[in-house]
Amino acid sequence: MIDLGIEKMMVIGAVALIVIGPEKLPRVARTVGHLMGKAQRYVNDVKAEVNRSIELEELKKMKDSVESAAREVETSIHSGMSEFDRQLRDVAAGLDPASGGTGTPALEASADPAYPEYRHPGKKWRLKQGATPGWYKARNGIRTRALSGAARVARYRPKKYN
């Protein structure tokens, strides 16, 4: 760039004082200052945009590496789960994986899990539910408050094996 020292600035100032005149010099200096400020802001904006684009490229590269690592973990989990499922099927079929599949009986397969049996509400069930006293509902396990879908699933989910 241009090397502006103190001597060159004094020469430029003296020439500007002679050419422009002492009356218009402050206004011209103010205008030049505003233009220089705008130029500096523009240069800073361009630098910031370049830095943002570089950071964006780095983030994309990082995102790709994280996604590839996640895919590797997912495939390893799926392969482990398939192995676990195969062993579980062997155990369910009565084969003991530790004895090499000699046919030792495994745990007895229990019957289907006990799901609550569906009861048809019948006609005008809302009216019937509303007319039933609260103590009767509490004794017989009739719902008095609405449950959300997630709460209903959590409440009526079959118990896991002990």
From TrEMBL:
Lineage top rank: taxon: Bacteria
Assigned keywords, A-Z: Cell inner membrane, Cell membrane, Membrane, Protein transport, Translocation, Transmembrane, Transmembrane helix, Transport
InterPro entries on file: TatA/B/E, TatB
Compartments, as annotated in UniProt: Cell membrane; Membrane
Main location: membrane
Pfam family membership, one: TatA_B_E
Membrane-related topology note: Single-pass membrane protein
Annotated segments matching region Disordered: 93-115
Function of the protein: Part of the twin-arginine translocation (Tat) system that transports large folded proteins containing a characteristic twin-arginine motif in their signal peptide across membranes. Together with TatC, TatB is part of a receptor directly interacting with Tat signal peptides. TatB may form an oligomeric binding site that transiently accommodates folded Tat precursor proteins before their translocation.
The protein's assembly and partners: The Tat system comprises two distinct complexes: a TatABC complex, containing multiple copies of TatA, TatB and TatC subunits, and a separate TatA complex, containing only TatA subunits. Substrates initially bind to the TatABC complex, which probably triggers association of the separate TatA complex to form the active translocon.
Family note: Belongs to the TatB family.
Protein's UniProt name: Sec-independent protein translocase protein TatB
